[in-house]
Amino acid sequence: MSSPSAGSSPLAAYGWDTTLEYEFTSHRAAGLIPARVAAVDRGLCDVVAETGPLRASAGPVPASSTDEPAVAPCTGDWAALRPDGPDGRPAVAALLPRRTAIVRSSASRDSRGQVLAANVDTVAIAVSLAARLDLGRVERLLALAWESGARPVVVLTKSDQIPDAAEAEAQAAAAAPGADVVACSAATGDGVDAVRAVLTGTVVLIGPSGAGKSTLGNALLGEQVLATGAVREQDGKGRHTTVRRELLPLPGGGVLIDTPGLRGVGLFEASEGLERTFADVEALAARCRFGDCEHRTEPGCAVLAAVENGTLPRRRLDSYRKLLRENEWAASRTDARLRAERDNRWKTIRKAQRQMYRERGRDR
């Protein structure tokens, strides 16, 4: 039986294409079916298959690389389903290689990252204008987004809450070189079309609780699908009305992933993301007299000169240093874990060798 073409598959609305169809060839030959993970919840996941939505078992599965440990499915993953799993329901048997992945430091702050969403094309960073504009948080989320391989867009929500959003847009643009910055109000509809125009492919909404992600998501979806909640007036924070990540098709094409509010976002091996986020600082650093300049007291430091003449805000340099330190700490934790895992593998091998030699000695 011939497999359906990518264009004719019901999964095309969720991003299925000819490349994915090719990557799935061996899975089809093994009797597996393609599906996209819409939500994951306590060992089970909601998926969209060619036949429609299904509930499937979602235990850890082998990674695409044999050098990696088993991975758990997450929203946005493309999965190969076994129609008749061991518990009688479909089961995720394998995951296709992730084109992009948004990874943050895990909540336990250990050396492994937590994948927030996979196979994302655009990261919409929601920032509420009803509260003080936290440019440091914007830079942190931008680093996360750039590192994922997706394209970040800063969406300034609740623009109806301030007299003029132009100044806020200018401030955000200065902190987001290379990224689109758009202001909108989902309540009035102002700017929503402009937001819609810059969001392409699979779009994930990220940001803190109260940033208006779900309200914006409903405006993009054209109906009240996502739960929304009130925001406290004193600090502009809201409750977690989105309790899990879920994936929904957009009416004009593409897919939307709404995520729970992020209280804390730790960086996880985001060197490239930081370079993109602070491209202006990196460009200045390339002109420093010393190649290992730390931009503190060194003579001929182009970064410090820019701070002194006002072309680079001191706040931005401080944010750059802070996030670099955090990223270096996360990388050192990962290096330590990898060394420990390597040492444990060698201990296991040596133990097996000693056991083999002892058994050979007894056989003589």
Number of domains: 3
Q: What is the CATH homology-level superfamily of the largest domain?
A: P-loop containing nucleotide triphosphate hydrolases
The largest pleated sheet is described as: 6 strands, mixed
How many strand units? 13
Structural class based on helices, strands and sheet pairing: alpha/beta
User: What is the CATH class of the largest domain?
Assistant: Alpha Beta
CATH topology of the largest domain: Rossmann fold
* N/C terminus separation: 58 Å
Q: H/E series, N to C?
A: HHEEEEEEEEHEHEHEHEEHHHH
Mean pLDDT metric:
85
Q: What level of helicity do the residues show?
A: 25-40%
Question: From the 3D coordinates, which CATH architecture of the largest domain would you assign?
Answer: 3-Layer(aba) Sandwich
The share of residues in extended strands comes to 15-25%
Radius of gyration computed on alpha carbons = 24 Å
Identify the overall geometry: flat
Cofactor: Zn(2+)
EC number: 3.6.1.-
Family: Belongs to the TRAFAC class YlqF/YawG GTPase family. RsgA subfamily.
Pfam families: RsgA_GTPase (PF03193)
Q: Would you kindly provide a written description of the structure presented here, covering whatever features stand out?
A:
With 364 residues, this protein is an alpha/beta fold. It folds into three domains: 86 residues, Nucleic acid-binding proteins (OB fold (Dihydrolipoamide Acetyltransferase, E2P)); 158 residues, Rossmann fold (3-Layer(aba) Sandwich); 87 residues, Probable gtpase engc, domain 3 (Ribonucleotide Reductase Protein R1, domain 1). The chain is 33% helix and 20% strand. The strands form three sheets. A six-stranded mixed β-sheet has the order 10-9-8-11-13-12, sandwiched between helices. The protein has a five-stranded antiparallel β-sheet with strand order 3-2-1-4-5, with no helix packed on it. Helix 3 packs across helix 7 and helix 7 crosses helix 8. The protein is flat. The N and C termini lie far apart (58 Å). About 3% of the residues have low confidence.
